[in-house]
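Lab notebook, bench 4. We co-purified these components, and the gel suggests they stay together. Before we commit to crystallization screens, I want a quick structural picture of the whole thing.
Request: model the full complex, all chains together.
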Amino acid sequence: MSENAAKTENYLNVKHTVASWLFTVDHKRIGVMYLATILLFFFLGGVAAVLFRIELMTPTEMFMASETYNRLFTMHGITMIFFFLIPSIPAVLGNFLLPIMLGARDLAFPRLNLASWYVFTFGGLLGLGAIIFGGVDTGWTFYTPYSSTYANSNVILAALGIFVSGFASIMTGLNFIVTIHKMRAPGLTWFRLPLFVWAHYATSIIIVLGTPVIAITILLVAVERIFSVGIFDPALGGDPVLFQHLFWFYSHPAVYIMILPGMGVVSEIIACFSRKRIFGYHIVAMSSLAIAILGFFVWGHHMFVSSQSMYAGMIFSILSFLVAIPSAIKVFNWVATLYGGSIKLDTPMLYALGFIGLFTIGGLTGLFLATMAVNVHVHDTYFIVAHFHYVMVGGMVMAFFGGLHFWWPKITGKLFPEMLGRITAIIIFIGFNLTFFPQFIVGYLGMPRRYHVYPEEFQLLHVMSTGGAAVLALGYMLMGVYLLYSLILGPKASSNPWKAAGLEWTTPSPPPTENFLEPPVVKHEAYAYTEEDTYRDDAETKGDTHG
Amino acid sequence: MNERFPVIPDQASALARDVDMLYLFLIGVSAFFLILIGALIIWFVFRFRRTSDTDRPAEIHGHTKLEIVWTVIPLVLVLIMFVWGAVLFFKQFRPPADAMEILVTGKQWMWKMQHPSGRWEINELHVPVGRPVKLTLTSEDVIHSFYVPAFRTKMDAVPGRYTTVWFEPTRTGSYHLFCAEYCGAEHSLMKGWIHVLPAEEYDDWAARIDPDLAELTPLEAGERLFTEMGCMACHNPASGALGPNVVGLYMSEVRLDDGRTVIADEDYIRQSIVEPMAKIVEGYQPIMPTYRGQLDESQLMQIITYIKSLE
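Here is the predicted assembly.
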């Protein structure tokens, strides 16, 4: 019987040629290709971070010149933000899961989906080219007139990479919006959608509205650089602060592009491992939309000391505080979901709980930054660096790896060593805090960011931070090793190893190319953990035909 | 404060203490919520741990009263933070009228400063304790940011416009000055010291002018430039000939030939010198040549200082 099951056709074993991957229009295969691509960028960005963290162990120059240091932190920022974080959850987990969660066969536009991977990869290669042919030294923020006139590095190539990869984002966002609107299974009403889908809906709206603005902005930098047209450089009659307005108009909402999908993942995991419907489901769904909309009106909090009007600053300050409310509501709702549940601390749940803790610290320190008078002191210091790493790494990366572990059996059809998974999650949590908590302290003490050499009194905290980075890197490597082992030698996964609710768990692991053996009909609300059929798993119903 | 492992930097201005108070309030609120959330998670995880695989917990859809409470309490708290932060911010950036003015120009990778007495400094700034000091900032090239952690204040130096920042030192000593806005290769070397001196010592210091350099005060230098650069020919304060009169110009309302009115602040005067065609005063011909490239940022500041003094 088990031999028979092994021969069942699924999306992975249906064809094995390279061409069958490169020309696939199967959203699951495209998701896997995205996974491989972004992990490469995550690795490159990580290597850059390790190198400059080692350099920062001493207050003076240790083994790299300023020019090298500047290129490394720029490379870290650009690869991590544009080529890892922004596509991470949507393009990998969203791509793989969204159609299955909706009970659809594929996304609305499968060819557009494949095109998005090619466009993204091309953009990534341009970015990579900028690094290989000498690097970029503007920081990921490309502030003018430094980037447009003064920088003597591959600004245009990097800008082009970001410009091109933006189109991939827009393609994915459009595809998601249309799919969610038009391709839901019979019975799957809006308020029966998993929160993962709601989060991706909100994210897609931001992507479609925001990405064109960064594309135009970055193009204007290139135009000024190549043709000396005065746009941002005052020596040419331009306005340098205009760039900051345009840049943050996209780049602040981009923070929510990066965090909202993570919140969606965490909602799924918490529901599963406490066997509870998410507390206040409607509020959590709507708070994603509230964050998406409010997020477009807070960009000026990056510019309190930029010469922006004080009154404009006040408006941006209060709006930034208001965006904290839907985020706080989400955290309270997740915690309340645990109440009265049946809680099991498997690997994905450890990541999800880690996410709540770290995102809470990231969110609370966001209040410090919305507070104008405190912002003035900590702006452009390590306090900011710590804050956004708590949100981006403590939040989004924890959610990404939580989600990757949670759906790993579904994606690969293999189980990973659970105990090793738990230990690694704890190592990553500890390493993360050791790396970034000292940065809050050194930031308040006045250590500016992007400093290659620094005053001696900050050394102890920098050494702690570098030590933490080593622990963090160890955690990531350990994960790489056991996931690779699982991929090759891991035991086969059943259809529903976590006993989770959701359409993706009703189909075999890995799913067939058509996603479902029979078109599903949805009879319950999301997270129907009181219904007995939620717990159905093909490991226990061996021999039964599905459906 | 723990000297071996400090968590709060030196407090060397009146404002520093105010900012730290607000910071501690924020830490208090944050710690409360972090501990609350952490404790609840740990308690629930332990109390509601799965004991049997057949556990099927009852559904809870929501609790309206509870949800209103945890929406309203954070809302009230953030409004307090907003008002406190905004009020302090306005104090931080509204210099008192009697503040001593120092002109500061940032350029890759140094800070150049001129005192009212005429004395120049690079990367080290001497200021008197107990007197308000206002800095007028600009940049020769890219954006820089003037940051003094001990004063808890910071302001960008933006090319093509003027920004201001002020402080009143309360403690003598030497404190870090950093450039906080990334500005290229040697960004981390664009730093220096603020030396806070007793007031009389500062006056002595500022008066010690190198006679070989024939340093003029910004006002004197501005007056001389006004003559040398030929401004007198058209903007003679005595006669008022071809160009608009500059006496009493500063902060007055100027009517432009397109019907708009603008306030003649530093940015307006600067633009009229380097980009004279941008705003033509009503009743005058657009005939003034540009002075872009003929005057550096320090000289522009000196001329503006002189024009401001004409009343």
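Residues 2-535 of chain A form a domain with the Cytochrome C Oxidase; Chain A fold (CATH 1.20.210.10). Worth comparing against the SEC data before the next meeting. The radius of gyration of chain A is 23 Å.
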